[in-house]
Design brief:
The complex is a heterodimer of chains A (121) and B (661). Chain A is of the alpha/beta class. The relative contact order of chain A is 0.17. Chain A has a single domain, classed as 3-Layer(aba) Sandwich (Rossmann fold). Chain A contains five helices and five strands; from the N terminus they run βαβαβαβαβα. Chain A starts with a strand and ends with a helix. Chain A has a five-stranded parallel beta sheet with strand order 2-1-3-4-5, sandwiched between helices. In chain A, 48% of the residues lie in helices and 20% in strands. Chain B is of the alpha/beta class and 661 residues long. In chain B, 49% of the residues lie in helices and 18% in strands. Chain B is built from 20 helices and 18 strands. In chain B, helix 6 packs across helix 10 and helix 19 packs antiparallel against helix 20. Classes of the chains: A alpha/beta (121), B alpha/beta (661). The interface between A and B is medium-sized, with 22 and 27 residues. Chain A: One of its GO terms (cellular component) is protein-DNA complex.
């Protein structure tokens, strides 16, 4: 299974990648939303994991683009860090499958990823 | 309503009555199970139950021999029983026209015998049934029928008890909340009154020390007496509320009993009317030092003696202390205050201890006072596990007495003479206090001691001064704008990592506050209005005390370890990355704050928070969240600057700890 991870905090991105790779996933990591979007357009991924707040292109913009322009129903998990973002997202029907609030519990993340991948399989 | 079963006329009210008890779908309960067992024993039947009938079902609160928790209302026998006002007994269902074809007679539970008594609420609604059932035909005798009615009544009583308990609980919570509200109101009110009073008394004190002519001296005297009286009244009210809320504790510290008694005597000597003789008789074998609550003994005696002097126009007022029993480790001492005053009528001997009561209604006007004194005395004595006794005859006099048991003071505990002289040198003191009058007062007092003083009008300013200059000591008011004393102390201890002694000064006097001060990291506590000597003593104590080394932050790696799946190298790599990046970001944050650059502050705080989360530094993460949120609003408050400082200091500390690993 191939996951694309967009997160601008180096330590968090590296840790998440390391964790997911340890669990058997292939992870492509990006610190910039724009690069991530280009990678999504040119490669096949099974799941998108993106921070909401990123320089360049935000997680919300990535989601909108994937759903509306690429017309893909690939599972998308958005990582949020504040209550404000969460309410914003809740009121927005932008097409993400899951919102996970930071700090992210690795175990919870794994369960959510597996659940999303299983329902598709 | 369109149903397949007969409905009582009062069905809606009946259902409402049932719901009031909140019994449906509750857990099993011994009281009900016992009642069901009794039914089964008394009637000699294999099946018995207590059930309640709602819109659609018969629900079994307790059952023997049924094995289900509910059945549809339309198949239950009891749907008919709740239409009745008395017990329904069907000796043989096979012979009963209504039931002989019932599925629970021909099959199902195979019921041949049914006896059901409605459970009737005190207001007359049949909400359920109590039943005895059998597979064979049967007839109950009179005793069994009576027993069933009695048990049914008990079941209803049990239900009533349950609702009454819930109601009681609710009322208790309301009452507790009210008491809490009253306590905090009193504490606040006393604070509001005591702050200016503190200034009045203190300045009058200082004024009295200046050169005054005779008339002025007399005026100042009057102000002093009035101020002190007012303070006494406020303290009385506060004490009473503390006693009532259980917040007042009796201390056990060694003190010099003889000195305390002499002090009380000298204090009250000035109030003795000219035709009254005031005596203090001490037993020859009365101990010099004991362990107990000096302050409270003082308060009790001042109150009782004050009363005696107030109500005695001629004759004598005698205070005596007698050693009535001595054991290996304690003394029992009888304290007595006897007067030849107006006395108390027999029928008033009890009510004088009630608050706001004096022996005659006109007394308040004739003799003044709050009417709280004796009530407080009685409760203080009871807190000492003793009793107040009173003997009195009208126009002859009164005697109040009580017996306190004090532990003996060991030789070591015997009160040591206070170190004399000011050998502290010229201390540099920082005072954090917002009230200008109190500032001036404290300033002149401290200058009298020969110390140097800087003043900050709030915690924020205090922190600023503290970071610029070197001080030996901080005097901290607790209630200040911007940053109160607790917050400021926590900041000094946790963020600035300073061990400088901090003395709390407060007009609050609720129990628990002192602990709160110590918890926040303060070293000592001086209640306001403060006495010069006490303040100096406290300063001496904290200046000579060894201050413990500050606690180091312990970092929780469990999150990082979970991410690293046990890989030590990866963990260390991430720690390295953190040490490398985070101080830089922290600097950026400070820089952006200086440049008023909201967007950079917001972005940097957001990014830092993700890193901070990995090391589970929840306090710093919370600060960063607040910084991010405030910055996104596009304005910097003093809170932001403060939080950025906290984060900066915190990160410095964390990085230091991480580097030492």
């Amino acid at each position: 299974m191939r996951i694309i991870l967009a997160e601008d905090n180096d330590i968090l991105r590296k840790s998440l990648s390391f964790f997911l790779e340890s669990k058997g996933f292939v992870v492509d990591q990006f610190s910039d939303g724009k690069d991530a979007l280009e990678a999504i357009e040119s490669n096949h991924y099974d799941l998108i994991l993106t921070d909401i707040n990123m320089p360049g292109v935000s997680g919300m913009e990535i989601t909108q683009h994937v759903r509306q322009s690429i017309n893909s129903d690939i599972p998308i998990i958005i990582l949020t860090s504040s209550g404000v973002e969460q309410t914003e997202l809740d009121s927005f029907d932008i097409g993400a499958n899951e919102f996970i609030a930071k700090p992210i519990s690795p175990a919870v993340l794994l369960v959510r990823i597996n659940k999303l991948l299983k329902t598709r399989a | 309503m369109n149903t397949d079963f007969p409905l009582p006329d009062n069905e809606l009210q009946r259902l409402a009555a049932l719901r009031r008890y909140n019994i449906l779908d509750t857990l099993p309960d011994h009281a009900f199970d016992d009642a069901t067992k009794l039914v089964s024993y008394i009637c000699g039947v294999p099946i018995a139950h207590i059930s309640f009938i709602d819109e659609a079902r018969q629900w079994f609160k307790s059952e023997i021999g049924i094995g289900v928790s509910e059945v549809p209302r339309e198949i239950s026998f009891c749907q008919y029983t709740i239409l009745e006002s008395e017990m329904v007994e069907i000796n043989d269902t096979f012979l009963n026209d209504k039931f002989k074809d019932d599925p629970n007679v021909t099959g199902g539970f195979k019921i041949r015998f049914y006896a059901g008594i409605p459970l009737t609420t005190p207001d007359g609604y049949n909400i359920g049934t109590l039943c005895a059932l059998d597979h064979v035909s049967k007839e109950l005798n009179e005793n069994q029928r009576n027993a069933l009615s009695i048990i049914a009544k008990h079941v209803i009583n049990q239900l009533e008890l349950g609702t009454k308990n819930i109601e009681l609980d609710r009322q208790k919570k309301i009452a507790e909340r009210a008491v809490l509200a009253k306590d905090s109101f009193l504490a606040n009110m006393s604070h509001e009154i005591r702050t200016p009073l503190n200034a009045i008394i203190g300045f009058t004190d200082l004024l009295a020390q200046t050169k005054l002519d005779e008339v002025q001296e007399d005026y100042v005297d009057s102000v002093q007496i009035a101020g002190e009286n007012l303070l006494l009244i406020i303290n009385d009210i506060l004490d009473l509320s503390k006693i009532e809320s259980g917040n007042l504790t009796i201390e056990a510290a060694p003190f010099n009993l003889k000195k305390t008694l002499k002090h009380v005597y000298n204090l009250l000597k000035v109030k003795v009317p000219k035709d009254v003789e005031f005596n203090l008789f001490l037993d020859a074998d009365m101990p010099e030092n004991v362990v107990g609550d000096q302050g409270r003994l003082n308060q009790i005696l001042v109150n009782l003696i004050g009363n005696a002097l107030k109500f005695t126009n001629e004759g004598e007022v005698t205070v005596s202390v007698k050693n009535v029993e001595e054991t290996e480790d304690s003394y029992a001492l009888r304290f007595s205050v006897k007067d030849t005053g107006i006395g108390i009528p027999k029928d008033k001997l009890k009510s004088i201890f009630e608050r706001f009561t004096q022996a005659e209604d006109s007394t308040t006007r004739r003799f003044g006072g709050t009417g709280l004194g004796l009530s407080i005395v009685k409760q203080l004595i009871e807190l000492h596990k003793a009793e107040i006794h009173v003997k009195s005859r009208e126009e002859v006099g009164s005697e109040f007495f009580f017996v306190f048991t004090y532990k003996k003071a060991t030789a070591k505990e015997a009160v040591s003479k206070a170190a004399s002289g000011n050998n502290l040198g010229k201390l540099k003191i920082l005072l954090c206090e917002d009230n200008i009058l109190n500032q001036k007062l404290a300033a002149s007092v401290i200058q009298n001691f020969g110390f140097e003083l800087d003043i900050a009008t709030n915690g924020e300013e205090g922190i600023e001064l503290l970071s610029k200059n070197t001080y030996d000591l901080v005097l901290m008011d607790l209630q200040m704008p911007v940053k109160d004393g607790y917050q400021t102390t926590e900041y000094i201890r946790n963020e600035m990592n300073m061990t400088i002694p901090i003395i709390a000064m407060t007009a609050h006097s609720l129990v628990g506050e002192q602990e709160r001060c110590f918890k926040a990291g303060m070293d000592a506590y001086v209640p306001k209005p403060f006495k010069q000597a006490f303040l100096l003593k406290t300063i001496k104590t904290v200046m000579t005390k060894d201050v413990d080394a500050p606690q180091k932050r312990v970092i929780d790696f469990s999150f990082l370890e979970e991410m690293a799946c046990g890989d030590e190298n990866f963990k260390n790599e991430m720690i390295g990355l953190f040490i490398e990046k985070i101080p830089e970001q922290s600097e950026q944050l400070l820089e952006a704050l200086k440049n008023n650059d909201h967007e950079t502050v917001r972005r940097t705080a957001h990014n830092m928070k993700s890193s901070i989360d990995i090391f589970m530094l929840t306090d710093l993460a919370l600060c960063l969240s607040i910084i991010e949120e405030e910055a996104s609003k596009g304005e910097f408050t003093t809170e932001i600057a403060d939080k950025i400082n906290i984060v900066h200091c915190g990160i410095e500390e964390v990085v230091k700890v991480l580097k030492e690993l």
